[in-house]
Specification:
The chain is an alpha/beta fold. The chain has helices at about 1-5, 15-25, 30-35, 70-75, 100-105, 120-125, 180-205, 210-220, and strands spanning about 45, 55-60, 85-95, 110-120, 130-135, 150, 155, 160, 165-170, 175. The radius of gyration is 20 Å and the shape is elongated. The N and C termini lie far apart (about 70 Å).
């Protein structure tokens, strides 16, 4: 029994709510760009509907493909605001969550699900507004008989996610940012937002600022030193 209990970590540091709030206003793409195009989960992991958004600290769950016993344990342990992130091995042969589990999570204040695996009950879940991001759907139900781990590092969509990391998901997909760098990355993303707003303002005035394109083309040899677009 003692060996089994070590597989569940109940306490861990979480990214601050202040950082979560700021990140939620920026979006996944901004954070991915500010992070050097790192942290974006594989494109197979998408929201059930494009209007869904999620932001919060990762509550990580490792399951055996097609078995959701550990997700039920996670629902009993997660705190309000946590995003339950599941390493399901990208297995699509059976759903790991559905409407009942989403309803339980919503009632407990969980911020959302990110599942590298299949889910089901899409028509029932979407109207509730509870954010669910998954690799696909399947009407098959899961087994509930195999142990796993909670709040250990996991691999989801090709990205390592540690418990407490910042998770942001929207219509573009999901990004994971390490807890240690999240505050710094949010500041960098806010700066990028400012630059993009300036670019759009210039377009509104009839100005097209793309001198960097010419320089980039010269640097790769497409244009000569004295050539321009």
């Amino acid at each position: 029994m003692a060996q089994e209990l070590t597989q569940i970590r109940r306490e861990f540091p979480r990214v601050s709510q202040e950082v979560v709030l700021k990140a939620s206003q920026l979006g996944a793409a901004m954070l991915a760009d500010a992070g050097g195009r790192r942290g974006a989960l594989h494109g197979r992991i998408q929201a059930l509907t494009r209007s869904m958004k999620v932001a919060g600290p990762a509550f990580t769950v490792e399951v055996r493909p097609g078995d959701n016993l550990m997700i039920h344990a996670a629902l009993a342990l997660a705190r309000p605001g946590d995003v339950i992130v599941v390493d399901g091995g990208a297995y699509l042969g059976a759903a790991l969550t559905g409407f009942l589990m989403a309803s339980q999570a919503r009632a407990a204040g969980v911020a959302g699900f990110v599942v590298d695996g299949a889910v089901r009950d899409v028509d029932e879940t979407v109207p509730t507004g509870f954010p669910v991001f998954a690799a696909g759907t399947n009407p098959n139900g899961p087994t509930k008989a195999i142990g796993g781990r909670i709040n250990w590092p996991i691999s989801v969509g090709g990205v390592t996610v540690n418990p407490g990391d910042l998770i942001i998901g929207d219509a573009d997909g999901v990004v994971a940012v390490s807890r240690e760098t999240a505050a710094e990355l949010v500041i960098a993303a806010e700066g990028k937002v400012g630059l993009e707003r300036a670019f759009l303002d210039a377009l509104g005035k009839g100005e097209i600022r793309n001198a960097w394109v010419t320089e980039a083309l010269r640097s790769v040899g497409v244009l000569g030193p004295g050539d321009s677009l």
